[in-house]
User: Fold this.
Amino acid sequence: MTEQKTAGKQKTLSSILIWLPSLVITLYYIPNALDKLLNPYQTGKIVESAVVMIIAGTFLLVGTGLFLYRKTILIGTSMLVLYMIFIVLIHMYKGKPSEVVILILMATIFASYIRQPHLFSQKP
Assistant:
């Protein structure tokens, strides 16, 4: 009986630890997307168009949703990584520090890998 309780606790802890990086990543992308949707007239950006901000916010929300769903994790990860690569290039163009943005990009890939490692392995 105690072995079953221990196995159940380990399984629960394992699933929490597997999902933790994804939840942290989600806590970055969702407020960013909502900011772009709710405040599309941001100034100081490279493209100061409300339409571009709304499209970027929608793109982030869709990408985050796909990232969280198990069957579409690869598509969602690709969308979020594509967005972050674009943001890294913008930071480099403006001369802003881009190290944190690169770390977020890497964390997105890492969180995806932790949840579905078989998607990243080569099949013979």
Notes: The helical segments are 2-38, 50-68, 73-94, 99-115. The mean pLDDT is 89. The CA atoms of residues 5 and 11 lie 10 Å apart.
